[in-house]
């Protein structure tokens, strides 16, 4: 996306995990993808914890760092060189100590030192071993054998041995997992002091949230396997040096702990949900094409659908597509929820709205409905169109608009295609950033996109925000002019997405992939200017936009302001720049805005909600089926036109800036139950 | 939740009286004699537990937690003071007080269902075969084991074994359930699942529960009160923490309660500062 900003590049990384995927062969000839597309930079001297439930691939990742295994895809760099085998610059401490039982504590450490630091004299080695024994408080136990030591002492020997050879990277694999809570606490405290003194870069695998918070600079949370990925990264900015009990009294401690526990709880429920949905899925489908009823509203942003049908890009041996045209969003959504449609092309906000039970009228609540989106259909393409007479008032930019609205004694009415939709969010964001109190001065009126131009002409609305095609009509007929496009607000924003139910997706995986794959192939053509004529021809057909579509497809988008507008190549974006990816970071931004405007509390279980909603796994399958490369979603920070960076890992601070510093209301979102039944079928008229 | 209305009533029809002390420890002391002399494990324990209350006992190893609970089970008699249930001294083990240990103690040659059945038949001989069967099936369902009912302990995971042990204990409809660190050996997810299942059954049957744990988060999730023990020898009750969270509780909801961190830090302070125990 064009607005992506790479942050945090100034500090030097010791270790770079670059897009690592790890696959294991299964006995039955299949494959198990343990880790998928993991990317992470670890800075010199940093302490990073990897946390997640068992089977999330934490230890797999640690083994990759150790060089014990090689990544199936991607790779790991340390000091700029690829890690291909184990080496003394990276030491691993395992849960089971792995000390040599026939050697004393001193001998165990000495052996490692002698093997690695050969240049040292006997005297120097002895000094080094003594120093390490002292560091871990085991000087008096130096002549004992491992069997004479407690579990905690054995683990200290293992740590002393690892540190004695002065590695650049210390890798700890659940080092205290086998110890009881009390011993663990004491050892955590010691380990922290040791690591702080040694200043060694450390990566630790753990499932203990307090351990992670005490020791780490950052906690990397991994999602459930298979295909585990980085779900979230938590910066632990608690002051150092830390003391185990004092740190828990820090005012931020429990907030951080809640983040970690919340993440793990959500992963747990997601695992249960996955099991429930899989159990409810019928046996392998027969080789009869699935009938798919797909709802849409005519507009330029459904061009991929029109193109795919015209070019027969949907695999007819798998799906038989029945497109159904609607005139307004509310009816389309109702039909989808009732089961009269199998899927629909909707606003980017709709899947989250459905899952949250957020209605399409202000303040309306409805029963949460388990929706998923496997792909983004289009990005950008909206514009704010003002009534022509406002041009005579000298309104030519946001500043003059805001000033004019504020001076007026009645509210300014803007037509929008649906409440809580992406267009409304962008407008609210943009006008507020321009200094306008939206709640006080703006009335948002929901209208069918087809009625926008008429309403503008009759003065029922002062402006409307809609897709390029509607706006082009208004400009062409000289009823309106364009003040801003969404490129001025959030370039590359998700506009339309494919939405279906979780249950339908689980029951018809092949059909869903076939639909997505067809749309993706068509989208690639839509983005290619060589296909412009073909696109015009197809969209001119009466079932899509009709003959006037030529207006909308002119290369130069006319603003009606008279000046020659710049070439807005990126106005509609269907395929380029990983456009199809159902991106959870973008979903997180949408959630901040729902909360910002008081439509619902910010969900404490957002990870769970986003993982239910945004199904990149299906997107990846469809991309591969369409002959494209499945690329990971960009995880970086992005910014809207106001320039404030949005980091999906830290949405609350972002939201606070928009709420003048006050904390947003938070709440647990009760998600729709994992649907165990097929959608109800209602015969279409 | 499985249907409960058709279940036969529990055996010991206990006399009413919420307010009357149900379990009562008065001036309880326990001294063990050994070849090397006497060891005073507990000194002057005073505690009253109401009927249906969920109490967790927490403390370092060697603080006499298990000793305390063994006197409720009837495995052990106090050397001084008394332990009474509804006013009567506890003399011996009985089916009105069931114990679940960390190590499951299932019969390995019997199936999951048979393990539970055996306990029900022994403790509730008055039930006819149909009712007995119903009680067994209901409790297996409560711990989500209906699908594994015909497997033997050797074929199932540690978490499932502990579910069997809990189902077996509760199928007997005991008035008191004694749990000696039942989830100590389980991984985090399984532990949470079992905690939730335990709370669900407790809500339904309302036995009085005494549970030993090392885990403060577990205690705060489950208990009405947390009894914190001082270190042995001559251990006593150092402090009792009231857990104010409303029931039914959700794990995540109590975590975000601002009182949670305060209670937790208070307990940690007790265990690791005021009554720290030098291990290792």
Explain this structure:
The complex is a heterodimer of chains A (685) and B (280). With 685 residues, chain A is α/β, with parallel strands linked by helices. Helix content of chain A is 37%, strand content 20%. In chain A, helix 5 (181-198) links the parallel strand 8 (169-173) and strand 9. Chain A is elongated. The model of chain A is unreliable at 1-10 and 676-685 (pLDDT under 50). Chain B is an alpha/beta fold and 280 residues long. Chain B has eight helices and ten strands. Chain B has helices at 65-73, 112-123, 129-142, 158-171, 188-205, 216-222, 251-256, 258-274; strands spanning 23-34, 37-49, 54-58, 80-85, 88-89, 97-101, 176-180, 208-213, 225-229, 237-242. In chain B, helix 5 links the parallel strand 7 (176-180) and strand 8. Chain B is globular. The N and C termini of chain B lie far apart (46 Å). Residues 11-18 of chain B have low confidence and may be disordered. The A-B interface holds A 53-54, 150, 152-153, 180-183, 185-187, 207, 244-245, 248-249, 253-254, 257-258, 261-262, 264-265, 268, 271, 604-605, 666, 668 and B 60-61, 187-189, 192, 214-215, 250-253, 255-256, 258, 260-261, 264-265, 268-269, 272-273, 277, 279-280.
């Amino acid at each position: 996306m064009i607005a992506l900003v790479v942050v945090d590049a100034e500090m030097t990384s010791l270790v770079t995990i670059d897009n690592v995927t790890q696959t294991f062969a299964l006995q039955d000839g299949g494959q198990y993808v343990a880790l998928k597309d993991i990317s992470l930079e670890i800075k010199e001297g940093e302490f990073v914890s990897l946390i997640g439930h068992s089977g999330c691939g934490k230890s797999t990742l640690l083994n990759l760092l150790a060089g014990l295994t090689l990544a199936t895809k991607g790779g790991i760099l340390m000091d700029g060189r690829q890690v291909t085998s184990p080496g003394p610059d990276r030491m691993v401490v395992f849960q089971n100590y792995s000390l040599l039982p026939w050697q004393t504590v001193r001998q165990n450490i000495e052996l490692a030192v002698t093997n690695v630091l050969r240049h040292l004299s006997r005297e120097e080695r002895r000094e080094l071993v003594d120093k390490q024994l002292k560091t871990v408080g085991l000087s008096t136990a130096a002549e004992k054998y491992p069997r004479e030591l407690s579990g905690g002492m054995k683990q200290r020997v293992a740590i002393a041995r690892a540190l004695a050879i002065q590695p650049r990277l210390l890798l700890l694999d659940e080092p205290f997992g086998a110890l009881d809570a009390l011993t663990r606490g004491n050892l955590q405290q010691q380990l922290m002091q040791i690591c702080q003194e040694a200043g060694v870069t450390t990566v630790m695998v753990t499932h203990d949230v307090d351990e992670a918070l005490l020791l780490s600079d950052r906690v990397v949370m991994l999602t459930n396997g298979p295909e585990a990925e980085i779900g979230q990264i938590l910066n632990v900015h608690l002051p150092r040096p830390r003391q185990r009990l004092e740190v828990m009294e820090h005012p931020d401690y429990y907030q951080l702990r809640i983040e970690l526990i919340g993440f793990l709880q959500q992963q747990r429920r997601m695992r249960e949900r996955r099991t429930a949905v899989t159990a409810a899925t019928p046996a392998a489908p027969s080789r009869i094409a699935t009938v798919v009823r797909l709802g849409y509203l005519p507009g330029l942003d459904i061009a991929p659908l029109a193109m795919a049908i015209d070019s027969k890009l949907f695999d007819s041996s798998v799906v038989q597509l029945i497109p159904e045209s609607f005139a307004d969003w509310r009816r389309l959504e109702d039909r989808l929820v009732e089961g009269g449609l199998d899927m629909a092309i909707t606003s980017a906000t709709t899947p989250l709205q459905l899952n949250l039970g957020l209605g399409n009228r202000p303040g309306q609540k409805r029963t949460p409905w388990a929706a998923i989106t496997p792909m983004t259909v289009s990005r950008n393409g909206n514009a704010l169109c003002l009534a022509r007479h406002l041009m005579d008032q000298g309104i030519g930019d946001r500043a003059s608009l805001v000033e004019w609205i504020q001076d007026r004694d009645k509210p300014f009415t803007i037509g929008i295609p649906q409440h809580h939709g992406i267009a409304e969010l962008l407008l609210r964001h943009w006008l507020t950033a321009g200094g306008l109190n939206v709640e006080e001065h703006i009335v948002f009126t929901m209208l069918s996109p087809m009625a926008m131009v008429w309403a503008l002409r009759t003065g029922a609305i002062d402006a409307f925000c809609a897709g390029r095609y509607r706006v082009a009509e208004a400009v062409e007929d000289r009823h309106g002019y364009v003040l801003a496009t969404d490129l001025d607000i959030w370039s590359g924003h998700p506009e339309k997405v494919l939405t279906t139910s979780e249950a339908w997706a689980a029951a018809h995986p092949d059909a869903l992939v076939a639909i997505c794959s067809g749309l993706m192939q068509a989208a690639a053509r839509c983005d290619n200017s060589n296909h412009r004529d073909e696109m015009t021809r197809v969209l001119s057909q009466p079932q899509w936009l009709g003959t006037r579509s030529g207006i909308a497809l002119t290369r130069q988008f006319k603003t009606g302001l008279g000046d020659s507008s710049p070439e807005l190549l990126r106005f509609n974006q269907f395929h380029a720049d990983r456009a199809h990816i159902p991106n959870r970071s973008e979903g997180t931004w949408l959630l901040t805005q729902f909360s910002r405007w008081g439509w619902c509390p910010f969900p404490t279980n957002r990870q769970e909600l986003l993982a239910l909603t945004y199904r990149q796994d299906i997107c990846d399958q469809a991309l591969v089926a369409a002959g494209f490369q499945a690329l990971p979603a960009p995880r970086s920070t992005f910014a809207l036109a106001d320039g404030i960076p949005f980091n999906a890992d830290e949405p609350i601070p972002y939201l606070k800036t928009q709420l003048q510093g006050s904390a947003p209301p938070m709440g647990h979102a009760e998600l729709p139950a994992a649907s165990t039944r097929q959608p109800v079928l209602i015969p279409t008229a | 939740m499985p249907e409960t209305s058709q279940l036969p009533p529990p055996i010991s029809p206990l006399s009413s009286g919420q307010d009357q002390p149900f379990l009562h420890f008065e001036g309880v002391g326990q001294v063990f004699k050994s070849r090397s002399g006497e060891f005073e494990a507990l000194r002057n324990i005073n505690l009253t537990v109401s009927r249906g209350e969920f109490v967790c006992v927490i403390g370092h190893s060697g603080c006499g937690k298990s000793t305390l609970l063994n006197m409720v089970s009837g495995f052990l008699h106090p050397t001084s003071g008394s332990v009474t249930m509804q006013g009567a001294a506890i003399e011996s083990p009985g089916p009105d007080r069931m114990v679940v240990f960390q190590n499951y103690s299932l019969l390995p040659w019997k199936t999951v269902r048979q393990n539970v059945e055996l306990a029900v038949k022994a403790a509730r001989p008055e039930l006819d075969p149909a009712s007995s069967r119903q009680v067994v099936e209901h409790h297996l369902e409560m711990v989500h084991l209906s699908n594994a009912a015909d497997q033997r302990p050797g074929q199932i995971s540690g978490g499932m074994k502990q579910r069997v042990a809990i189902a077996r204990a509760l199928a007997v409809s005991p008035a008191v359930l004694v749990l000696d660190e039942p989830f100590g050996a389980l991984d985090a997810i399984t532990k949470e699942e079992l905690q939730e299942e335990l709370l669900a059954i407790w809500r339904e049957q309302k036995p009085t529960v005494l549970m030993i744990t090392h885990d403060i988060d577990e205690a705060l999730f489950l208990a009405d009160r947390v009894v914190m023990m001082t270190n042995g020898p001559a251990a006593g009750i150092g402090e009792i923490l009231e857990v104010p969270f409303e029931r039914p509780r959700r794990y995540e909801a109590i975590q975000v309660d601002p009182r949670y961190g305060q209670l937790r830090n208070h307990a940690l302070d007790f265990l690791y500062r005021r009554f720290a125990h030098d291990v290792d």
